[in-house]
Amino acid sequence: MTQKPNPDPGPLAAARRIVDQAQNFAVLSGAGISAESGLATFRDSDGLWEQHRVEDVATPEAFERDPRLVWRFYNARRKAAHSTRPNAGHIALARLEELGKSVHILTQNVDGLHQRAGSAKVTELHGSAWRVRCTGCGAKSTDHPIELHVLPYCDKCSALLRPDIVWFGEALDPADLAAAARALEACQVFLVVGTSAQVQPAASLAFQAVELGKSVIEINKAPTLLSASATISLIGLAGDMLPRLVSGFGH
Ligand code: BV8
Ligand code: ZN
């Protein structure tokens, strides 16, 4: 349920001052930043997909049990992401870099919209819907049609191909976690945008930022588990709040 945006410009004005004065940013983004591009989030739509909870479809067990169902799920996500475009929230984060700030995006999203908006430093903590991995030889590839033929097989070793996505119960890539730790350490401001801050270990980055004394600015259409600990919690839509936060938008 969408809460009324903060009526009082106080927190937004305070957040703008922090952003204007800082040079180094890390951003943790979740499905909520892509919602205004028309992409479903995980928990707003109560996660139902073809009568399955997402957690039941985005797991290695689900792929073992019914790879066709899982490929239909990811083909639908690829098609939806392909037919939309970055929204004002993604674009505002790319603009922050154009203003000469250092911005490292740590996204839980697999849609590729931050890169399409022009953000240069993006770590996809949960993988990418656009990358495919062979279950046999491990080869990774991105040269596939928007919707892959079901079922897709490796042209090198003929084993089954899977989305190169971190499913529930799978470990994140240690290199991505190391990059996230470096970005967290180096930043002055840690923006948390459009995430329910429930999925670990990604969500823990936001709480570590609080521990490290960073300025943690949350943007979400509703309060989350993080809101009470954030330096500033801005209630509103990412596509509306982020442009107002990044000076040079003339708001
Ligand atoms: C692992 C890829 C172990 C798939 C995803 C109990 C405690 C701690 C951990 C666990 C636990 N029980 C289970 C676990 C483990 C589990 C976990 O955290 N589960 C949760 C549900 C409790 N974690 C894992 O399994 C991780 N792996 O632990 O491995 C291990 C370790 C070593 C060795 C072997 C194994 C792997 C997690 C990654 C799973 N993959 N995605 C895919 O995308 O298809 S997670 C999935 O959830 C997406 O990445 C998504 O981004 C992410 C988080 O969800 P959000 O992005 O936050 O989206 P959500 O819908 O929840 O919220 C949207 C938010 O946006 C809301 O707050 C809403 O208010 C807001 N919003 C909406 N519209 C807007 C908006 N805000 C602003 N503007 C708007 N317009
Ligand atoms: Zn192979």
Commentary on this structure:
This protein has 251 residues and is an alpha/beta fold. It has helices at 9-21, 54-57, 60-65, 67-82, 88-98, 113-117, 174-186, 202-211, 238-245, and strands spanning 24-29, 48-49, 52-53, 102-107, 121-124, 127-134, 140-141, 161-165, 189-193, 215-220, 232-235. The two termini are 26 Å apart. The strands form three sheets. A six-stranded parallel sheet has the order 5-4-1-9-10-11, with helices on both faces. Strands 7-6-8 form a three-stranded antiparallel sheet, with helices on one face. Helix 5 runs parallel beside helix 9. The protein is built from nine helices and eleven strands. Zinc ion binds at residues 134, 136-137, 139, 154, 156-157, 159.
Give the gist of this structure.
The protein has 251 residues and is of the alpha/beta class. It contains nine helices and eleven strands. It has helices at 9-21, 54-57, 60-65, 67-82, 88-98, 113-117, 174-186, 202-211, 238-245; strands at residues 24-29, 48-49, 52-53, 102-107, 121-124, 127-134, 140-141, 161-165, 189-193, 215-220, 232-235.
